[in-house]
Amino acid sequence: KAGVTQTPRYLIKTRGQQVTLSCSPISGHRSVSWYQQTPGQGLQFLFEYFSETQRNKGNFPGRFSGRQFSNSRSEMNVSTLELGDSALYLCASSPNRDLKNEKLFFGSGTQLSVL
Amino acid sequence: AQKVTQAQTEISVVEKEDVTLDCVYETRDTTYYLFWYKQPPSGELVFLIRRNSFDEQNEISGRYSWNFQKSTSSFNFTITASQVVDSAVYFCALRGYSNYQLIWGAGTKLIIKP
Question: Measured between CB atoms, which of B33, B37, B45 is closest to A101?
């Protein structure tokens, strides 16, 4: 069974641009969540989608958005990039509706560098 | 508020030594879930263990063991007879019943020297 796939693996953008990151969950998994990882702030929850609906959202500005498609694949978008958005963006999937006690399966992440 | 503290930023030991990674958590929820994940240099976080607040039994899985103590709000992780392949960053995380968000500790970088 294929794992969580994130594309692209690396991305370089300049300030003011926008970026779209993609995540394909494990087949059959309906929940997809996104995390930002930086050396300074560590791992922070961005948002979580289940059956194409955003179920929970972290404390990030509106420049960060996401969506989930009917096949459970998810994208996140960051508009008007800032230098501080440079980070490793991790996607995770889980199979069931009860996210609270479920283990997450992570992708290898997209390393975004904003110049 | 919920919080996870991993006070050890980096630990370095020689192969075959035992090592314990500390995790202290804070939550007002009476039902909550604790997790440990491993992040090797490849970047992909790998699930190690999950514990709910009603199950204080310690767990052993091969060379790995976990000590959950509600009285001290700690969920410590011990690797026995460490190996070079154990080198990674280890994260402790908490999810309270009232919140879907997974709250992460800062992580402990473990270096196992041959």
Answer: B33
